[in-house]
């Protein structure tokens, strides 16, 4: 059995949750370690996987379009491994030597790197949000089924104890029937570290920094001149590259209610308010409402998302069980039930339950732990699954593609300040057919993947 066939076999075993561990293939690494490559090797976003399990395996290749941005990490980590600027070249040349890849690029290149790796039988860990448009999400979910690789999206709170306690509490009826959810974030800080705030659009041209391969950074998006505030992190403010505050944080904060309430894509998403912004730039504040249909024994659910500064005397009112509004106790998410409330942090975290008598009853007799617990965090969860030593990761692409689709529908409604009626089966807006062009965005020649899936 060769290396690739073996890994595909163990991936299938892991997906069926049967523990199995063995590595045996031509050119295998010492002590059964995986050969892992990084696509996106600079800053804390690459330090996270390195420090949380990947450095315990064999790091066999690095890729980054910005040599200056990744210089510090490469000085500390690179001991002769090949370095690439173009992940397409790396995957073509080295795919037989790579078992798994961690993808930590800007949102607009997540899909190309992830899809190309999966087509070559390589297991993938892709940072959130999973993709930049809904067609990409659905294609990655289908690719997981087709190529039988182990997948994980980087909404790390999904692997924690806290979210499991919350999901089990909601499903056990601790707070009663839930029909309303509030989620929020006080950002974006426009012009701050993570979000650009240009004076004009299109943005003015500035000199490309030495060490940056600008055309490769653009990837599938249309060519344009470099603008200094795109990098290293402020691209999030531009819809062509990022998805704003909702895309940046929604995969964390919406994770608990989507999991606990088993929410499928909504039938309607409406943007009730957004601050004005330049075309193609995110607003400094917005208010969205998602309408989820009834499912099974659960009734319909409304989920409100707020970002930026809000007047909580007018919006996000809870006014029940001792809580006034969506920012009560500084929590980022509140699920409102008929018996009480359950609150979570930005990255899920441990639940806060109100009122006090419901919280005390839950603490004295918590529901059974029906969801398997994860040891060591999301990267080790992913690595164990690849080796066949654990079940499929919780945020695999069948789960995270649906979560990301929900979020990207909200991003689309926010971008155009409108109401979107969504036909999930067809993958189309029924009331704004002109927006369907954004469900599958065009990609430049050389950057088109998954078209025949």
Description:
By secondary structure, the chain is of the alpha/beta class. The chain folds into two domains: 176 residues, Rossmann fold, CATH 3.40.50.720; 245 residues, Dihydrodipicolinate Reductase, domain 2. It contains 13 helices and 17 strands. The strands form three sheets. Strands 15-14-13-7-10-9-8-16-17 form a nine-stranded mixed beta sheet. Strands 3-2-1-4-5-6 form a six-stranded parallel beta sheet, with helices on both faces. Helix 3 links the parallel strand 2 and strand 3. It is globular, with a radius of gyration of 22 Å. The two termini are 27 Å apart.
Write the layout of secondary structure elements.
Layout: H1 3-15, E1 35-39, H2 43-51, E2 58-63, H3 71-77, E3 83-84, H4 87-94, E4 100-103, H5 110-119, E5 123-126, H6 134-147, E6 151-153, H7 161-171, E7 178-185, H8 214-218, H9 244-253, H10 255-260, E8 268-274, E9 286-292, E10 301-307, E11 317-320, E12 323-325, E13 333-337, E14 341-345, E15 348-354, H11 356-364, H12 378-387, H13 397-416, E16 419-423, E17 428-429
Parallel strand pairs: 1-2, 1-4, 2-3, 4-5, 5-6, 7-10
Antiparallel strand pairs: 7-13, 8-9, 8-16, 9-10, 11-12, 13-14, 14-15, 16-17
